[in-house]
Design brief:
Length: 597
């Protein structure tokens, strides 16, 4: 047992990493608690390439596309062409080999695709379709006719639209913000109304933010098939729920677009900044002008709005990455928020959307005086929040994402620093951490101080080995992106005094098992330099023997041994990471494997 634990110490815990400094960060995997992570692979796009990696940072597969990639339910990779989330007019689906299996391009000159898109199943059509965000051009005269304040110049103005196309590339539905506006300056115009009484429409004349190019800068959208609703997020700190089901008529595109432009297409719910519809206080400077308050504003610079999927912790709630720009905090930091839109002021789930100001607010103070934050109004509809204890540890001014995982963990991608981490639900401790090594200047082993998004990643996603995008494909780990062997901390690293690694003589060979991770069986190849008694054993991370695979004399040569994931008693082991150790002729070699049941 002591020998096995010594090997574990050598193999897992005796890593040599640079000290964590403010200006120098080791890239790739930095920490991994295998017992608490959700098993699978992480997918992200950077600098025009999509990478699929394992927890140690080994590259499993790549695609020559990399803007905002994700797998669809059909098992293909969907992404925009061009590498720039802010400007995209062509989208593709690629198979595992990188072949294009579907493509769509927005060719209309007055539509400008950007930021987000999704493949959905349209229940009324009985087929999959494609939704995307596009800025749609407005003339200055259109703005004035709608009731925009004439003191401003509206040349080049735009408002976001959500466009739906079928698999043949035909536009079958469209929803446009410009069809759902309100103003209180010109009573003779059809858009006139009392702003506070019109939460389903957006104020054309928001103080200090007149209509202009990329006015709302919507950056994310999601679709709920059960409810047949769409949610779209604006970087200015609001997200809006739109009725797709009651504004879509199958096989009638023109009538669908016309219906979506009526009051049937007004917002069913909005969250984030009630001052924009005169039902809350805006951010403001306090009497002591060195301090400020966020008022009733909940979001700032937000990204990646989504419904938490069925079967996951918090299913049916919204989750959003609150970058927290423009929230007027003295010491800003980013947050992940989970929002239940059905809660009323008593905290009762009403089963229907409740206007956030009606649900009310809790006055929340800073958890620690060193954060130097003022008390703030926090919506009672926020049911869970994550932020780092040290505000400087986690802050991203742009992009970013969060994903609720089946084990209750949440995977976070902070775009500014290409920083991925997985947090545990009970105590929000980090259980995996990774920094993207791909920068504007190529792959770097150490990221030094640089401007934001130097190694930026717009979003990251975790997929289980059984996901349709991965099932049936070769998931054998390759090299890491830097080419260096993985070097990271584990929970043992944080508590133990480490023994130095002992170099093992070369000669015998122990290869990485394949496939890895595996569901049913895996093969371990090894080579013996000269005749010897050979022992090949599987251990768990506590150093307990799980399965004796080999204990006999071998002649020199190459051999293979399979393991079916069962222990010495014939019982199936639990999913997780294990160590297999080869001992022959006084030499000890060890590698890791992952079993996913």
């Amino acid at each position: 047992m002591k020998k096995a634990l010594l090997i574990f110490t050598m193999f897992m815990a005796s890593v040599s990493l640079p000290a964590q400094e403010s200006f120098m960060v080791k890239t790739e995997t930095r920490y991994w608690d295998v017992s608490k992570t959700y098993p699978g692979y992480t997918l992200f796009g950077t600098r025009g390439v999509t990478y699929l990696i394992d927890f140690e940072g080994h590259v499993i597969h790549t695609w020559n596309i990399g803007t905002n990639p994700r797998f669809t339910g059909d098992g293909v990779l969907l992404d925009a062409v061009g590498g720039n989330p802010s400007n995209q007019n062509t989208w593709k689906e690629l198979d595992w080999a990188g072949n294009t299996v579907w493509q769509y391009s927005e060719t209309r000159s007055n539509y400008h695709g950007h930021h987000d898109f999704t493949k959905i199943y349209n229940p009324k059509l009985g087929d999959s379709t494609f939704l995307y965000i596009a800025n749609k051009d407005l003339t200055a005269q259109q703005c004035l006719d709608a009731g925009c304040d004439p003191q401003y110049n509206y040349t080049g103005s735009q408002m976001d639209a959500i466009v739906e196309v079928n698999r043949q590339g035909t536009v079958i539905w469209e929803w446009w913000f410009f069809d759902h506006v309100v103003q209180d300056m010109f009573p003779a115009k059809s858009t006139y109304g009392i702003i506070a009484n019109s939460p389903g429409r957006i104020n054309l004349n928001i103080r200090g933010n007149h209509v202009k190019s990329d006015w709302l800068h919507c950056n994310s959208l999601d679709y709920n098939e059960t409810l047949d609703l769409v949610v779209v997020n604006s970087v200015h700190g609001e997200f809006y729920v739109i009725d797709h089901g009651n504004t879509f008529i199958a096989n009638q595109p023109a009538n669908s677009i016309a219906l979506a432009a009526t009051s049937a297409g007004d917002f069913k719910y909005r969250f984030g900044d009630p001052a924009k519809y005169n039902q809350g206080d805006p951010p403001s400077v306090l009497d002591n002008w060195e301090k400020a308050t966020a008022g009733n504003k909940q979001l700032g610079g937000s990204h990646d709005i989504q419904w938490i999927r069925s079967g996951l912790q918090g299913a049916g709630n919204f989750m959003v990455f609150d970058n927290a720009q423009n929230l007027f905090e003295l010491t800003p930091q980013s947050y992940i928020l989970e929002i239940n839109p059905y809660l009323n002021a008593a905290g009762v789930n009403t089963g229907q959307f409740v206007n956030p100001p009606d649900a009310g607010y809790n006055i929340v103070g800073s958890p620690d005086p060193n954060l130097m934050k003022e008390n703030k109004n926090v919506s009672k509809q926020i049911v869970w929040k994550y932020s780092s204890k040290n505000n400087t540890s986690f802050y991203s001014t742009i992009g970013s994402s969060a994903q609720r995982l089946p084990n209750g963990n949440t995977l976070v991608c902070a775009m500014n620093d290409g920083h991925f981490f997985e947090i545990h639900p009970s105590d929000t401790t980090v259980v995996w951490e990774y920094t993207n090594p791909m920068t504007r200047d190529g792959i770097k082993k150490i990221k030094v101080d640089n401007y934001p998004t130097y190694n930026g990643v717009f979003r990251a996603y975790r997929y289980a080995a059984t996901d349709p995008g991965l099932a049936g494909h070769d998931l054998t780990p390759g090299a890491t992106m830097t080419g260096d062997p993985p070097s990271y901390w584990t929970p043992r690293s944080l508590t133990d005094v480490q023994e130095p690694a002992v170099a093992q003589p070369s000669g015998n060979i122990l290869d990485q098992n394949h496939p890895n991770p595996f569901n049913y069986s895996t093969t371990i190849d090894f080579g013996i330099e000269q005749p010897a008694m050979v022992t090949l054993v599987i251990y768990d991370l506590a150093g307990n023997q799980v399965k004796m695979l080999v204990h006999q004399d071998y002649s020199a040569g190459k051999f293979s041994q399979t393991w079916d994931g069962k222990n010495d008693h014939g019982m199936q082991v639990t999913s997780g990471m294990y160590i297999y150790i080869l001992i022959a002729d006084g030499q000890q070699l060890a590698k890791k494997l992952i079993f996913c049941h």
